[in-house]
Design goal:
This protein is α/β, with parallel strands linked by helices. Helices cover 30% and strands 19% of the residues. The chain is built from 31 helices and 36 strands. It has a seven-stranded mixed β-sheet, sandwiched between helices. Strands 29-30-28-33-32-31-36 form a seven-stranded antiparallel β-sheet, with helices on both faces. Strands 23-25-24-27-22-26 form a six-stranded mixed β-sheet. Helix 3 packs parallel to helix 15 and helix 8 packs across helix 12 (294-306). The protein binds iron/sulfur cluster. Iron/sulfur cluster binds at residues 25, 27-28, 30-32, 65, 69-70, 72-73, 198-200. Iron/sulfur cluster binds next to helix 1 and helix 7.
């Protein structure tokens, strides 16, 4: 494995030789266990040893994944490289000592609080933090500073689900566990492309369905996605119509003897009023409103009614909405009305996006929570927490949720913000407003792993934090399972753990008493102790069973689901088996719901709905997954998926470029010269889109592309209860853009952002294992671009270029080694990255290589096409050849090529290829070698 994971350490006491450390994957909310092979090699001098992460596999007995990992987890070591890491603190862009940086942050926060009050400062934190990090950050803000202005990027992920659970159950209590999606009769996936966003959980459903073909899967999603491959029924509902669908389901259940009257009577309240609100939603009305066939609606309603055990799993497609809380409650209403809750294979199951969104909820990482599932507006709770913390202050009212927080930074109410482990300039809606807010803010502190991202551009102080392989603590996954993430490598360069940084700032602010921890284990015991304080079953989050662990017990803690207490010392699989809820009456609450349309409505001027989401192999803003050439190869460009008829109406062909304009135009002017973020994407014509709706991925940013930060197209629209932004439904207009030139440049070294902006109107630059790949488009002609590039690299000693069918390919060498290759032919997207990686790693190219570079036609060994299977590096062309050779099933492809046989993330794409690819008669690719004319570039 990667040598970049080698770090010198003084752990002389470590035994020489290999060992294995169990930890947890830091990406999605599935929370898979990983076993990391570690080599401790004694140094030649005998002074200390070197630690090397030499391998990684899924933990066989981790109950979340039983040894399986998706492609992101499989590639964890590749993304753990030290390249691009923040190394030292900085103040105003200059290197600073830790003491100077900590004092600057502490003094500035203290001064601002003294002058303007506690609510004039804020933390914006992250579901990437460990629970212990989150706990101390929350304690500092709510117990010591005395404000609740700590919010988290989990606000963007599942805050609507949290509010819905609290409304229905009286607590943020996820009732289900992963086993439920296997031990059920019906899985309903709503607003979730789990095949890509929660792959290992999706594959558990897939395997369960194979074992039990009677298990039915219904997908409710406007798009047909990779997850649809498993669906027995797909409801491609019009975006934002979920409440009408589930209100209709409740009315149907009532009219067709589908209710559990005993459960409703004994364990719930509010049913009559709720049903009253649903009565108008007949099947016909639902079908018309949701724009789905009546028969499909009826099939779904019957399945829900007739199947004894139903799990409805939902994710960002439900939550990221101006009525996200209502959507989740509409789902919960149907489970309450049928008693499909609190027993095996049943329940409304919110799938969290982030690895530790749940941990943040536990310790109070959201601005409207206190800690340990206690409430800011409950005097008993605030008193309890303040007594426990022995803190000088306690927040008694909710703080600012993410969207409001940045508004208050912009208007000057909040004067200092500390952003931890997140990149709000890319992930928050209304990017230009977020930038304007950060430009306005007196003090922006960013603690992060990476040295460069779009948010760090606006930081006054940066603080280097440790990353996954270095951090030590706990995370909680979607099924309430707490797992250890174990520190393996020593902290890189000068980086510190987030909890240490928070405690250092707290102590420098004068709060020595509450933050004198020496280890994460102490923090964990304090946190779990607080969950147990005066609990006696009154609160769902009870960790009394693990509240006094020794350091050794903490280190060895096995994955366990809360609550963990005297009644359930081994943890609790599912909640509400006794149908006792955390409301005042101990009964669950039905919520009567009216249907609200999305706030950002289309019009003649902005006729398209923009939906957004994740792609298979990337995570958030690519600061980690973007380092892996394997992960980048699956989908190297941000594209806009559009229905063929919409594309035809706009005269758009596959790969054409299109600019997107948003209906909202309320962004304040930024202080720099570009007053507006441009979004330009390459077109991907996709019949799985509904007409009038387009889809774009969320991952790309100014750090790697000119114009792909799509969150800029979303307005501040958010759910009034949860504050979760509406990131699935913007009204946009599309305008085709024609460029004078376009192509791909492969470089040994990355090109600087300033240079890229000067040369290209559009670019995306991603790393390869041996260089970089730049996809570009420009209004300048190729000769002018080549001239600029050549001037930029005066040390390259040999430049060659060739005309072929009016297109030009070029390359540059330095002492015989390939440094740059440029392809501008119409098929430049077919150039194989593996080939260029191979060429970049050669010290001397041969004549055949030169010819191949000039023609853009490598040896057939490098003609695999776009990568489909990242684990075994199997490309689309290879798979098509196997289909032509007679492979008719995913299993047959796996047997022949191994594709899909490791992490399984690509299986749905293999299935799509099998369904869609019709082998054509073989044609001979002609290389017009006779028309080749080679000229020296500098002669043009
Ligand atoms: Fe990590 Fe993939 Fe498991 Fe999610 S499903 S935790 S990304 S390995």
């Amino acid at each position: 494995m990667s040598q970049t994971n080698t770090v010198k350490t003084k752990r002389a006491s470590q035994e020489q030789g290999p060992s294995e450390v169990s930890s947890t994957c830091p990406y999605c909310g599935v929370g898979c266990g990983v076993d990391v092979s570690v080599d401790y090699v004694k140094s030649d001098t005998g002074n200390g040893s070197t630690v090397r992460l030499s391998g990684l596999s899924g933990t066989r007995d981790h109950p979340a994944n039983f040894g399986r990992l998706c492609v992101k987890g499989t590639q964890l070591l590749a993304t753990n490289s030290l390249a691009g890491r923040m190394q030292t603190p900085t103040i105003d862009g200059k290197k600073a000592s830790w003491s100077a940086a900590i004092n600057k942050v502490a003094q500035s926060f203290s001064d601002i609080i003294a002058t303007h009050g506690a609510d004039s400062v804020a933390f914006y934190v992250s579901g990437q933090l460990l629970t212990e990090d989150y706990y101390v950050a929350n304690k500092l803000m709510k117990g010591y500073i005395g404000s609740a202005n700590i919010d988290t990027n989990s606000r963007l992920c599942m805050s609507s689900a949290v509010t819905a659970y609290k409304r229905a159950f009286g607590a943020d209590a996820v009732p289900c566990c992963y086993e439920d999606v296997e031990e059920t009769d019906l899985v309903v996936l709503v607003g979730s492309n789990a095949a890509w966003t929660h792959p290992v959980l999706y594959q558990r459903i897939e395997r369960a369905k194979k074992r039990n073909p009677a298990l039915q899967v219904v997908i409710i999603d406007p798009r047909r996605t990779a997850s649809s491959e498993l669906a027995d029924l797909h409801l491609p509902i019009k975006p934002g119509t979920d409440v009408a669908l589930f209100n209709g389901l409740l009315a149907y259940l009532s009219a067709n003897q589908g209710l559990d009257h005993r459960y409703i009577e004994q364990h719930t309240e509010g049913f009559t009023a709720t049903l009253e609100m649903c009565q108008n939603w007949s099947v016909d009305q639902v079908a018309a409103f949701c724009d789905v066939d009546n028969s499909v609606i009826t099939q779904f309603f019957d399945l829900f009614k007739l199947r004894d055990r139903v799990v409805t799993a939902y994710s960002m497609g439900v939550n990221q909405s101006s009525s996200g809380v209502d959507k989740a409650n509409a789902i919960i209403n149907c489970h309450l009305a049928t008693g499909k809750l609190g027993r095996e294979g049943c329940g409304p199951f919110s799938l969290t996006g982030q690895p530790n969104a749940m941990g943040g909820r536990e310790v109070g990482g959201l601005a409207n929570m206190l800690a340990c599932h206690m409430d800011l507006d409950n005097a008993v709770h605030t008193q309890l927490v303040q007594n426990y913390w022995q803190s000088p202050n306690i927040a008694t009212k909710p703080g600012l949720k993410a969207v409001d927080l940045f508004d208050k930074i912009l208007d000057g109410t909040v004067k200092a913000v500390w952003i931890m482990a997140t990149n709000p300039v890319v992930s928050m809606p209304n990017r230009d407003k977020i930038i304007a807010a950060l430009q306005t803010c007196e003090l922006v502190v960013v603690s992060d792993v990476t040295a460069q991202n779009d948010t760090i551009d606006y930081a006054h102080v940066t603080l280097p934090a440790t990353t996954w392989s270095e951090k030590n603590g706990t995370v909680t996954n979607s099924e309430r399972r707490i797992s250890r993430q174990r520190g393996i490598l020593p902290a890189f360069a000068e980086s510190k753990h987030d909890w240490q940084i928070v405690c250092d700032v707290a102590k420098a602010m004068g709060f020595k008493q509450g933050f004198n921890y020496q280890t994460v284990h102490e923090i964990f015991n304090e946190y779990t102790g607080l969950s147990a304080e005066q609990n006696q079953g009154s609160r769902d989050l009870d960790l009394s069973g693990i509240s006094q662990l020794s350091a050794e017990q903490y280190d060895k803690l096995r994955p366990v689901q809360w609550p963990i207490n005297a009644a359930n010392p081994q943890g609790t699989k599912r909640l509400f088996s006794d149908a006792k809820f955390y409301t005042q009456t101990a009964k669950a609450q039905f919520i009567a719901l009216s249907v609200q349309l999305p706030e950002q409505q289309c019009s003649a001027a902005f006729p398209f709905v923009l939906n957004s989401g994740r792609i298979r192999d990337q995570w958030h803003t690519m600061t980690r997954t973007g380092k892996s050439s394997e992960l980048n190869a699956h989908q190297p460009l941000p594209t806009l998926a559009i229905h063929p008829e919409d594309a035809a109406a706009l005269n758009l062909n596959q790969h054409d470029f299109v600019q997107l304009f948003a209906a909202h135009n309320d962004q304040p002017k930024r202080k720099d010269d570009s007053s507006e973020t441009k979004v330009v994407l390459a077109v991907n014509i996709d019949s799985r889109q509904r007409q009038g709706e387009v889809f774009a991925p969320i991952h790309w940013s100014a750090a790697n592309s000119s114009s792909a930060a799509i969150a800029s197209l979303y307005s501040d629209a958010h759910d009034p209860l949860s504050g979760q932004p509406e990131l699935k439904h913007a009204a946009v207009a599309l305008s085709p853009i024609r460029f004078a030139s376009q192509g791909q440049i492969f470089t040994k070294h990355p090109l600087a952002r300033d240079f890229l902006r000067r040369c290209f109107d559009y670019y995306v630059q991603i790393p390869l294992s041996q260089g970089c790949m730049l996809t570009f488009a420009s209004q300048q002609q190729i000769p002018a671009l080549k001239s600029l590039i050549q001037q930029h690299f005066p040390l390259y000693d040999e430049w060659m270029s060739q005309l072929l069918d009016g297109q030009q390919n070029s390359y540059a060498l330095q002492q015989g080694q390939l440094m740059l290759a440029m392809f501008t032919g119409s098929d430049y997207r077919q150039i194989d990255q593996v080939w260029l990686n191979a060429l970049f790693s050669q010290t001397q190219l041969g004549p055949l290589d030169f010819n191949a570079l000039l023609t853009g036609r490598p040896h057939t060994a490098f003609n695999a096409g776009p990568l489909i299977c990242s684990c075994f590096k199997v490309g689309e062309n290879t798979i098509k050849q196997a289909i032509e050779a007679g492979c008719e099933t995913v299993e047959a492809l796996g047997a022949k090529l191994k594709c899909g046989t490791n992490c399984g993330s690509c299986k749905s794409e293999l299935s799509q290829l099998l369904n869609q690819y019709t082998p054509a008669p073989q044609t001979q690719m002609s290389v017009a070698a006779a028309r080749i004319s080679v000229v020296q570039l500098d002669e043009q």
